[in-house]
Write a structure and sequence with these properties.
This protein is α/β, with parallel strands linked by helices and 206 residues long. It contains 8 helices and 8 strands; from the N terminus they run αβαβαβαβααβββαβα. The strands form 3 sheets. A 4-stranded parallel β-sheet has the order 1-2-3-4, covered by helices on one side. 41% of the residues are buried.
């Protein structure tokens, strides 16, 4: 709390993940999610985000989506008890990557949707279109750039995914929540953050 206060910051979200499709370890995974949710509530963060949904070695089975959906509803119940808003974050290397899988899982759970613009684009989706399609379930966004070759996440509006249409979609849908500008890896992290901030200042002023 002191570090946040001393630096003029607030905590917006905590993140946890899990396989969510294996019955024998689900209680342990939900316990880890509960721990992350407890810390969010303790520090007055409004959001809890989870990712996951394991890919089996021999391919995804249709019941896996139902298991994931049921587990996400349990995550939502954990968050609800603590006054948090729970979100599912589709992620590369899980069973929910592209647009069809996003549509499939959100038919099976009542949890909110945290779109990560780079992961959605990397999986063949149009982030702006997905934001419009699922706007009613979005109150928290992970915004970052992405280039296809060589594969890399980038500062905003660099690479192959224009950020302008994504910001336009958020504006058109009346989005009024938090946007987390991410950059998972960059040679100079401070410079990468400044590039993203400079872009956002120009975009918001335009």
């Amino acid at each position: 709390r002191k570090l946040l206060s001393d630096n003029g910051l607030v905590l917006v979200a905590t993140y946890a993940g899990g396989n969510f499709i294996f019955d024998d370890i689900l209680p342990e995974e939900l316990a880890r999610v509960t721990r992350a949710a407890d810390r969010a509530a303790e520090l007055s963060a409004p959001h809890l985000v989870v990712g996951g949904g394991a890919k089996r070695f021999d391919g995804t089975r249709d019941p896996d989506y139902h298991k994931l959906g049921a587990a996400l509803d349990r995550v939502k119940a954990i968050a609800d008890r603590l006054g948090l808003r729970a979100h599912y974050h589709p992620h590369l290397s899980t069973i929910v990557e592209g647009p069809d899988e996003v549509a499939k899982i959100f038919d099976l759970t009542s949890i909110d949707f945290c779109p990560d613009t780079a992961h959605l684009a990397a999986a063949g989706g149009d982030p702006a279109q997905l934001i419009r399609r699922h706007a009613a379930r979005i109150s928290y966004v992970h915004l970052k750039g992405f280039q296809r070759a060589p594969f890399a996440f980038t500062p905003l509006d660099r690479g192959d995914v224009p950020t302008g249409p994504i910001l336009a979609a958020l504006k058109e849908t009346g989005f009024a929540g938090w946007v987390c500008t991410e950059l998972d890896s960059w040679a100079d992290p401070a410079k990468g953050a400044r590039l993203s901030m400079d872009y956002l200042k120009r975009a918001m002023a335009g």
